[in-house]
Amino acid sequence: MSDLNDLLYKKNYTVQDIEKLLSLRNTEDVERLKNRANEILNSHIGDSVYYRGIVEFSNICALDCHYCGIRKSNKQVDRYSLDRETVVSSAKWCADQGYGSVVLQSGERRDPAFVDYVEDLIREIKKETRSEKLPEGVGITLSVGEQSLETYRRFFAAGAHRYLLRIETTNEELYQSLHPASQKLEERILCLDYLKEAGFQVGTGVMIGSPGQTTAMLARDILFFKEKDIDMIGMGPYLVHNQTPMASEGQMEKDELLQLSLNMIAVCRIVLKDVNIAATTALQAVVPDGRERGLSYGANVTMPNITPTEVRSSYKLYEGKPCMDEGRQECKSCLLGRVRSIGRDVAFDQWGDSKHYAARKAQLEANVC
Ligand code: 5AD
Ligand code: FES
């Protein structure tokens, strides 16, 4: 199909082009999509895989997203918040293992005590993880939701330099069906602008296959990432959590959900080129080798879970989340085996920043001069 070849090598993509790519299902076409994604990965950023050790440091959440297992109305969740020493020692463990970066993720809170706590964690982790290999300490990515510009500035000044804030969908109606009326898509978008203004490498992404989502919506999401000049993508399949209002709506059939999610990764790689793309844990909830598959479709980042085992099962956003009973040591060897099983290797002792961000920054500096 030479039409497909034209599509895979286009310079500028329309919604219709992207829809076509996302809809590919025939084995041969999917193989070509995957090959093109890998060609771009290799020519723009290389095939190393970067680790971010993720610490889910608190499941206390002030929000009530209809899909999420730790939403505030779910009274069946045992709420926890890890103390400073536990979080800092987890980050130190990461540094010792050669994981150059950590992600600090939690439920969303905006109260001053929380903001102060996160700021303190960042400073302490930066101080405690400096070494010959990591002279500035581990790289810190935050994933603590919508905050004010001032808060983002404080987090950045303390030493965090990447931030993940998923948009979930750019479709107004779908966004509203996923969230209570008090949560607004325009506010989420504004936060992405704030994050950029504060100096962060900005990551976003969507839930794939949420009820009511169409391929055209996903295609528009990808164009949104492009327009917003996003540096990193973290997205994954939507999976039901039984204690949420959306549980009754069901979820997409697994084979279809997996292929759509993998195609999303490949198409993001093809359209966005030099961004970091994560093979997320939720892929592994669909099939055991989901993360490897994500990497083989053009992703270059993955996040070993380093949350203490005692609290892991309380940070359950969806059913079937993997690694619930494992410890950080088990995830370490398991994940390395998974990455190597597909002929890739991990770049240890590096932050693994987004190449797109470097290019964006160089452009900004050129404009200033
Ligand atoms: N299925 C898949 N992803 C989910 N998330 C939250 N709940 C679910 C679910 N049920 C994702 C959201 C959020 C991220 C931290 O986890 O995209 O931004
Ligand atoms: Fe956690 Fe495999 S990555 S057990």
UniProtKB/TrEMBL annotation:
Residue intervals of the Radical SAM core domain: 47-278
Cofactor binding summary note: Binds 1 [4Fe-4S] cluster. The cluster is coordinated with 3 cysteines and an exchangeable S-adenosyl-L-methionine.
Top-tier EC class: transferase
Chain positions recorded as [4Fe-4S] cluster binding sites: C61, C65, C68
MF GO annotations: 4 iron, 4 sulfur cluster binding; biotin synthase activity; metal ion binding
Positions that bind S-adenosyl-L-methionine: E168, R188, L239
Entry annotated with the keyword ATP-binding: no
Matching InterPro entries: Aldolase_TIM, Elp3/MiaA/NifB-like_rSAM, FeFe-hyd_HydE_rSAM, HydE/PylB-like, rSAM, rSAM_sf
Cofactors: [4Fe-4S] cluster
EC code: 2.8.1.6
Keyword Transferase belongs to the record: yes
Keywords noted in UniProt: 4Fe-4S, Iron, Iron-sulfur, Metal-binding, S-adenosyl-L-methionine, Transferase
Protein name: Biotin synthase
